[in-house]
Amino acid sequence: MKEFEKLKQFIDKHSGFVLVGHKNADGDCIGTMSAFGIILEKLGKSAVFIVADPVPHNYFFLKKVKDFKVVNTFDCKQSPVILFECGNMERSGINLENYGERANFDHHPDNKFYAELNIVNPEASSVGEMAAIFFREYFENLIDSDVANSLYTAIHTDTGGFAYSNVKKSTFEVASYLMSKGLDNQLVCNEVYGNNKIEKTRLLGYYLENLEVKKMKNFNLCYGVLALKDLERFNCTSRDTENFANYPRGIMGVDVGVFFLEVEQGVFKVSLRSKGKVIVNKVAANLGGGGHKFAAGCTVKGEWPRVLDTVLKEFEKDE
Amino acid sequence: MKEFEKLKQFIDKHSGFVLVGHKNADGDCIGTMSAFGIILEKLGKSAVFIVADPVPHNYFFLKKVKDFKVVNTFDCKQSPVILFECGNMERSGINLENYGERANFDHHPDNKFYAELNIVNPEASSVGEMAAIFFREYFENLIDSDVANSLYTAIHTDTGGFAYSNVKKSTFEVASYLMSKGLDNQLVCNEVYGNNKIEKTRLLGYYLENLEVKKMKNFNLCYGVLALKDLERFNCTSRDTENFANYPRGIMGVDVGVFFLEVEQGVFKVSLRSKGKVIVNKVAANLGGGGHKFAAGCTVKGEWPRVLDTVLKEFEKDE
Fold first, then answer.
1. Which helix (H) or strand (E) element contains residue B180?
2. Which InterPro entries match (chains A, B) (predicted)?
3. Option in B57, B169, B204 nearest A208 (CB)
4. In sequence order, which ranges of A113-245 are alpha helices (DSSP H)?
5. Section B65-94 average pLDDT
């Protein structure tokens, strides 16, 4: 925890900070930035929050989120910067100018340790969990229900509701600690998960209704597809399909799930998800993409259902 | 914890048990029965597991579930019985004959304390949490990963993935403890939530695609409906609609969600769910039903969309 001590000194030393999220910032990144913002304010310090993309509306309930600025370029005027979940500087999606000392706060294993201070723990479920442990150690008295709600948002979203393998004993211990600090877990989950756009919900419905299961040589595959005209019909954009790739894998008896999303006319983003029996990043690589063993992706050009054929053939080759 | 001491004595005293679940047993009930079964076996005692309805397939991975018997009537031959989440004897849905001493293990506030030994804690998130605390106190060394997975199934399903207001500090503490006993939280969640029937998923899709939002005088209502012919078309039964009632409430800007399910020709089960602004059990009561302030239900006879009109009018009356 030597890094935590250094982070404490980093915070003590400065009076104003620039907090930077990653491209398409998620619940972990946004919740943790919000929590840092509240703590810094209580310390009498100022913070500017910047992200490259608009914050999804389901995080608007968090205290600091209304102050988040969406920017392409930012002049830091020599202020110290804390980057959240940015494995490298480009990951922020922001052209940062004139930044001062940088703290790099992350839990991803591919982090490049590029900053003056690198606090990177790939064992942590989330940066929310890291922040909770840091705050508990140094700012115990400043943790209020807003901080707790922000950090629970981070932890709950990044662990899929305590469902993923990144959950450790410490993750539950931190959640238990946050309960003692006024966490309203129901409020958080209602806001984050119970606030769905009707258009997106109907699009999801159409997508689920039309899922297809395909028997391959040695395994079962389930796929779903959304064409540009479907997005248009439901008054949605590709940003409304976040998480859709996980549904086909969730079908009983299915080993691999595939989500085809037409991102431009005749260009399909293909997301591959495996339950663990079939390795999918080889297939993705053969089609010019990449990724992890059990979660990978690629882009395939062509018209439907030729694109489907291309991907299915690649799977058969690979078996 | 006097009751826990008595339960320990109850278990010590007998060598064979009948474990009884409630009608349409859920993850909490099934997981906890499974955990008790494993512990009893390790103690060299025998257990019979009985339920009134088939166990949903997504719980088949739990160690003891293959031994569960589905019965209407059961001759206990004077064996001691442990009833799980049965507020009264009828709640089991089983005609129990010749039962011996009864232990009543529940966390619902409406429990009737009808048994020789009543272990009822309405503060507990789940009977899974109660069981974990009991086992930790008396059978610490017998808790293995199968017990931990069974109890996590119970806790995770009954708290909506640590999302509901029944979650306490102790709930997370118990989960943390189960991690130290070999809990595989990812396995549990993959099995419980990632094992959906394709037919049910398509039915859910159709339901979501056709959700409607209705502006009432002082609030917004979202409803979905499934007719008998829809269930038939998707090759599903009403049992495949478990949890469907929660989706309409999950829409942004909506205060009340309503799910209409045709259970017989011209007979609709109506499930009402509120986000907290509108009290719904009064509406349900006016239509001959009942329930909690924010989750209630009733049955309305008639043809669609007359049934919808009836319910909407009742809401307008109530405003």
1. helix B169-180
2. DDH_dom, DHH_sf, DHHA1_dom, Oligoribo/pAp-PDE_c-di-AMP_PDE
3. B204
4. 127-138, 145-158, 169-180, 185-193, 198-209, 228-233
5. 97
Rg from Cα positions in chain A: 21
Residue B204: is its pLDDT beyond 90?
A: yes
Which one of A186, A209, A275 has the shortest CB-CB distance to B165?
A186
Average pLDDT, integer, range B238-263: 94
**Identity at B291, one-letter amino acid code:** G
- In the three-class reduction of DSSP (H, G, I as helix; E, B as strand; rest coil), residue B207 is classed as helix
- In the stretch 97-156 of chain A, residues with CB closer than 8 A to chain B read 156
Examine domains B2-193 and B199-318 and report if their fold is the same: no
Q: What is the pLDDT of residues A135-178, one digit of tens each?
A: 999 999 999 999 999 999 999 999 999 999 899 999 999 999 99
Task: Check B194 against A247: CB less than 8 A apart.
Answer: no
pLDDT band for B1, please (50, 70, 90 cuts). low
Structure tokens at A48: 């500017």
CB contact under 8 A, A205 and B207: yes
Looking at residue B243, its pLDDT comes to 85
Residues A107-121 have a mean pLDDT of 95
Inter-chain residue contact B190 with A165, CB threshold 8 Å? no
For an interface test with B, give the residue of A153, A185, A188, A233 to mutate (most B CBs within 10 A).
A185
Which residue, among B149, B176, B177, would best test binding to A if mutated, counting the most A CBs under 10 Å from its CB?
Answer: B176
CA-CA-CA-CA dihedral for A46, A52, A58, A59, to nearest 10: -20
Q: Do B172 and A169 touch (CB under 8 A)?
A: no
CB-CB under 8 Å, B196 with A250: yes
- Smallest CA–CA distance, residue B248 to chain A, in Å, is 9
A229 to chain B, minimum CA–CA distance in Å? Answer: 16
Contact B206 A209 (CB under 8 A): yes
**For residue range A169-207, what is the model confidence (pLDDT) as tens digits?**
999 999 999 999 999 999 999 999 989 999 999 999 999
- A302 secondary structure, DSSP code: S
Nearest to A198 among B162, B180, B211 (CB): B211
Contacts (Cβ under 8 Å, ≥6 apart) of B224: B207, B208, B210, B211, B212, B244, B247, B248, B258, B259, B260
**In this structure, what DSSP letter does residue A92 have?**
G
Q: What is the mean pLDDT of residues B149-156?
A: 98
Any B CB within 8 A of A214 CB = no
C-beta separation of B148 from B181 below 8 A: yes
Count the helices and strands in chain A (H runs, E runs): 10, 14
pLDDT at position A318 is: 56
Q: Distance of CA B305 to CAs A52, A220, A260, B299, Å?
A: 47, 41, 37, 14
- Asked if the C-beta of B195 comes within 8 angstroms of chain A's C-beta atoms, the answer is yes
Q: Are B109 and B132 in contact (CB under 8 A)?
A: no
Domain boundaries, chain B: 2-193, 199-318
Considering the domain B199-318 in this protein, what is its CATH number? 3.10.310.30
The answer to whether B180 contacts chain A (CB < 8 Å) is yes
The 10 Å Cβ neighbour count of residue B142 is 15
At the top level of CATH, the class of A2-193 is: alpha beta
pLDDT, chain A, mean: 96
> If you measure CA to CA, which chain A residue comes closest to B221?
A198
Chain A residues lying within 8 Å of B222, measured CB to CB: 198
